[in-house]
Amino acid sequence: MDLVSEVLRLTGMRGTVGAQIVAGGEWTAELSDYPGIATHAVLSGGAWLVLGEGRQVQLATGDVVMVPAGTPHLLTDTPGTGPATAVPPSGDGGQVLRLGSGPSRTRIFTIHYDCNHATRTQVLDEMPDFIHVEGGESGAAYLADVVRLLGRELSRPQIGTDAVVDNLVDLVLIQLIRAWLSRRPAQQRGTWLGWGEDDVVREAVELVHADPARDWTTTSLAAAISVSRATLARRFQTAMGQSPANYITQWRMDLAAVRLRDTPDTIDVVATRAGYRSVPSFTRAFVRDRGRTPGAFRLQARQNALVRAP
């Protein structure tokens, strides 16, 4: 089972095309008013990334950086030079923003990634606050290939370019996650991604995801993968930073929250599919986890959807 793909689907992770920065000479682009996680792919040339706390990172052709949502940052030819130009949010995505007075030497493609926040099980939330994958880095060959394809499509648009770019945006995210996982296995320990470091824990998580409605307990889960209850509990805590029982509940609540928000299923059906034998027991568990009843959660989700609708 591909656990990462399943969680990305459940969370509704999506990428939105931001501005293309075409720059030369002295230039500075300010990025602060943008939705979701900002990802910048350097298609050609080079630049400096300056984070809010003053951290400076030099970028070269093929590099990709990911910056957490809501983090003000600058892209510039040289830190500390010239006035900054605000990059518009992705509502104006795809537009070309030309900066500087010199010949165009640098092209940067910006993507914004965001998801619905009804679920607690997230992939990107478990990754570090800042990710920098260099174009020639070991384990990032596929990401470099995607960046090159993006560069070709954007420099020479053809029939279907918009569709190609939309698909490449999804590939950038997947390859960025792969590249980070391949080089930072120790950082996964104690997070949701920790199952990747322990085959026993991975098998347990896969069983829960394959049949979340089954009456799983730490004991029954341990028996299903032929280890002792104590062994599973210890290794699960080390790998994922929580107990098997807590994770079973978390995943069931995530599935229930998405069904309440996105389907017309009755509370009884949602409860059954989440592995609860009665609506009262499901309601008690949901209130403990989400702070409101399933009905109140559904009502709030629908009201939020109306507010976001054009």
TrEMBL record:
InterPro entries per the UniProt record, alphabetical: AraC_lig, AraC_XylS_family_regulators, Homeodomain-like_sf, HTH_AraC, HTH_AraC-typ_CS, RmlC-like_jellyroll, RmlC_Cupin_sf
Every HTH araC/xylS-type domain range: 202-300
Annotated keywords: DNA-binding, Transcription, Transcription regulation
Domain of life: Bacteria
Keyword Acetylation: no
PANTHER family the record matches: HTH-TYPE TRANSCRIPTIONAL ACTIVATOR RHAS, HTH-TYPE TRANSCRIPTIONAL ACTIVATOR RHAS-RELATED
Protein name: HTH araC/xylS-type domain-containing protein
Organism: Winogradskya humida
